[in-house]
Amino acid sequence: MQSKDGASPYFADLPPEIVTDVCLRLPAKSVGRFRCVSNPFRSMLSNPGFVKKHLALALRKVSDSVHGKLLVPSRHLHSVDLGSIRDGSVATRVLAGVKELSSYGLEPATITWVEIIGSSNGLVSIYTEKAGNFLYNPTTGEAKRLPDSIFPNFIDVMVVTSTSKHYGFGFDSLTDDYKLLKFVPSEEGFPCLDVYSLKTNSWNRISCVPFKHIGCNPGLEINGAVHWVVKLLKGQTPKRDVVAAFDLNTQDFRFIPLPDEAEDCKCMKVATLKGRLYLVYDSIDKHEAMWVMNEYGVESSWTKIQLSMSFRSFTPLWSAKNSEEVLVQVDGKFVLYNFEFNTWKNLEFSNVTFRKMFLAHTYVESLISPNSYGNA
């Protein structure tokens, strides 16, 4: 027997707080399906307060266990359950559960490649060659095509290798807003920073910044700021390369000096693992080390980590709690690296062809909608 709106009458006998509590513990995809049960369910499960509580629990699960997803770009996007990479003990494994995601409302023929700029709370910022910028929720399939900035676009030379390195993406927890950052050229010869707000669906220009060169990859969000490795203009302090951190709330830059030994590398990038900031190489030369900042913002806490493998590009992506095994992307391939024993295992994907150069990202499944968020 069903009620007039399609809901089961048995739910009417349960206190609403119990139904809500049960649904909060369900995977995001299950909650999405339950929204179709009835209008009352849709209303309850789409409520902004419910969505935020569900996200908070999902983030706790990601930090405590193997919950979470790996998002890999090629001509489309592919996701992998992070928990699946821990099964088995053979040296080379084919990962199960690779799933080609939808093309976020675009015809596949219009997409030649996809770049991931970053992810935050289940929303992923992506850039497509012909369609521009999107905010995309891989779990719900919802996407929002962002308006173009009203300010000048990139000059051609900045687009030749990679557009995404001039971007950054993150969540401003104080204003409850998601922001996309974009460096653009200026008449003065150094970049300005344009900031897109999801809440207002508009762009704002930050005054030009004294950068001579911006690092090799998109900015990375950690501790409420987006980070790049940059070279400052002459006359600026400090005089060497630094990590530039753009505070998403105050919209100000602060600078973190690099370790002394890392000064001479022409191309470095930041990464994050278990909440800590890492400095890694991304260059044509071979390297065998990286750095971790044990206390955020404290220059003296940079610690060098010597690795047992040579690489040109090394990016730590994910590690389960209390695990010495870390998923890393090394020279365009995926590896499980054990920091306790300095050993590694190669990982392989089945039925997926990647571009020669790509950046993978991790994300948590959530119900955050890029389309209704500004109205929450």
From TrEMBL:
Residue ranges of every copy of the F-box domain listed in the record: 14-54
NCBIfam families the UniProt entry points to: F_box_assoc_1
Name this protein carries in UniProt: F-box domain-containing protein
Species the sequence originates in: Arabis alpina (Alpine rock-cress)
